[in-house]
Design goal:
It is built from 10 helices and 14 strands. It has 329 residues and is of the alpha/beta class. The chain has one domain: Alpha-Beta Barrel (TIM Barrel). The structure holds S-adenosylmethionine and iron/sulfur cluster.
Length: 329
């Protein structure tokens, strides 16, 4: 068992795995209305290939795994993959990010397969606005998904809200209030310039200090402590059952504590969300002379090459052509 430390002293211990670039929604900030050109099945890692990579990653010191996409729950037999990852040695934090559309159907199976916790993305509590953002009539299904996740005990249940000025900034208080009666953990995420056809613009960006001040209008925000990687602190409104946190990659970058690597569904190991550098793992796992040593060497190379930080602030849109649904948020 190894421990990977990069050139900047950061321990690499977290792998986000995008298992598909497909999605049943078309969020305006993530995907064009027509969708993105999908990879064929042959171009996408099989579950067996993903597991080879997960096993090598865990040997290299990866302890935390998140499944994402595209929308991970649209990929066939996703529960089998969840069960296999849950059984992998040394993975002690295992989660999944979903848009919630299929969670009513899958939450219980995912929990039984060994998934520990879940993040659900929801950007509006108003049906028509949610439809405008996702380009689908999504709200009722997502709310059903959230309630099912709570009911089956897939907790903590975190709600990801990307705040966009002029789109959903009028709903910040309503999202914060969700934490009062249910154990929901609302995370306000700053809108990032990702992909070359993103709708991102400075006029749509809201720094999280502003979001936090709007939450403070509801009452005192008591700080509960920060995550070890320093990317967020969580706060509680009075005796609320859940918490509020602020993920601020633009106004307060947390690159200094970033131990993340991302595996795209087409088998590229992406070293930073904000740069297009990738290492091709697909060709390694499909090589007729495959050995897990080759994957271990690739993870070691990733640690050497991982950039010090994103440069969203100095050069927006340098993250390359891939949108968030292709990289895995
Ligand atoms: N489909 C799943 C979902 O929506 O939760 C998983 C994939 S999605 C790409 C992962 C997360 O990235 C979501 O919470 C989404 O809101 C977020 N996201 C996508 N584009 C973003 C952007 N430009 N800035 C900030 N967050 C973004
Ligand atoms: Fe799909 Fe998630 Fe992107 Fe929305 S944010 S289009 S749900 S991948």
């Amino acid at each position: 068992m190894k421990s990977l430390v990069d050139q900047h002293g950061r321990k690499i211990d977290y792998l986000r795995i995008s298992i598909t670039d497909r999605c049943n929604l078309r969020c305006i900030y993530c995907m064009p209305e027509s969708g993105v050109a999908h990879k064929s099945h042959e171009e996408i890692l099989t579950y067996a290939e993903i597991m080879k990579i997960v096993v090598a990653a865990s040997y290299c010191g990866i302890k935390k795994v998140r499944i994402t996409g595209g929308e991970p729950l649209v990929r066939k037999d996703v529960v089998d993959l969840v069960a296999a990852i849950a059984k992998t040695a040394n993975i002690n934090d295992f989660s999944l990010t979903t848009n919630g559309m299929l969670l009513g159907e899958y939450a219980e199976e995912l929990k039984n397969a060994g998934l520990r916790r879940i993040n659900i993305s929801l950007d509006s509590l108003v049906r028509e606005k949610c439809e405008m953002i996702t380009r689908r009539d999504a709200l009722n299904k997502v709310v059903e998904g959230i309630d099912t996740a709570l009911r089956v005990g897939l907790g903590p249940v975190k709600i990801n809200v990307v705040v966009i000025r002029g789109v959903n900034d009028d709903e910040i208080a309503e999202f914060a209030k969700l934490t009062c009666d249910k154990p929901l953990h609302v995370r306000f995420i700053e809108f990032m310039p990702i992909g070359d056809n993103s709708i991102w613009g400075m006029e749509k960006f809201i720094p999280n200090d502003e979001v936090k001040n709007l939450c403070r209008e509801l009452g005192e925000l008591k700080e509960e402590g920060s995550q070890p990687n320093g990317n967020t602190s969580s706060y509680r409104l009075g005796k609320a059952k859940g918490t509020i946190s602020f993920i601020s990659p633009i106004s307060s970058p947390f690159c200094g504590g970033c131990g993340r690597l991302r595996l795209t569904s087409d088998g590229k190991l992406r070293l930073c969300l904000g740069s297009a550098e990738e290492i091709d793992l697909l060709s390694i796992v499909r090589n007729s002379k495959f050995s897990s040593e080759h994957l271990i060497e690739a993870f070691e190379r990733a640690a050497i090459l991982k950039p010090k930080g994103h440069r969203f602030n100095c050069a927006p849109h340098i993250s390359g052509k891939k949108t968030m649904c292709q990289i895995g948020g």
